[in-house]
Amino acid sequence: MVKVDVKGCESFVKDEQFKAYVQKAMDAFDVLDSEQGAGNDFLGWKHLPSQITDGLINDMEAIRTSWNKKGVDLVIAIGIGGSYLGAKAVIEALSHNFAKQLKHKDAPEVVFAGNNLSEEYLAELMDLAKERNVACIVISKSGTTTEPAVAFRIVKQFIESIYGKKEASERIVAITDAARGALKQLSTQEGYKTFVVPDNVGGRFSVLTPVGLLPIAVAGFDIKDLIDGAKKAERALSIKDPANPAIVYAAIRNLLFKECGKSTEILVNYNPKLTYVAEWWKQLYGESEGKDGTGIYPASVNNTADLHSMGQFIQEGTRIMFETVLHVENARRSVVIESDDQNLDQLNYLSGKHVEHCNHMAELGTRLAHMDGGVPQIEISIETLDAKRLGELLYFFEFACGVSAYTLGVNPFNQPGVEAYKKNMFALLQKPGYEEATKAIMERL
Question: Is the whole-model pTM more than 0.90?
Answer without folding.
Answer: yes
